Amino acid sequence: MKIIDIISKFGLEIKAVGDPQKEIRGCYVSDMLSDVLANAKEGNLWITRQTHPNIIGVASIKELSGILIAGNKEIEPDTLNKACAENITVMTSPLQTFEIAGALYSFLTQGTEK
After folding, report:
1. 3-109: CATH topology
2. pTM over cut 0.85
3. Quick one: residue 78, left, alpha or beta (phi over 0 = left, psi -120 to 50 = alpha)?
4. Binning pLDDT at 50, 70 and 90, where does residue 36 land?
């Protein structure tokens, strides 16, 4: 599954364009940067409500596929500038974290559960 595949499926708004062809290999949901640094896997899509520039640094270090901000939170301009510089896609959803995480889980695991 690629970033581009979920953008239209879930009505996500792109706030910073990275690589829309980047592969999503799962999702990680957390608002704690230290938790993401310790536990997120390369290729994960990070779902959070954090919007400060440090999220871009974490996503870059962990080689995440992108960042999805739940609840249509306003994103700091410095964050978006840094995302563009680091080639990281940042998207927003009007859905709250629980709703978008559940929807993505169902979509990404479709046909893979026993």
Report:
1. 3.40.1390
2. yes
3. alpha
4. very high
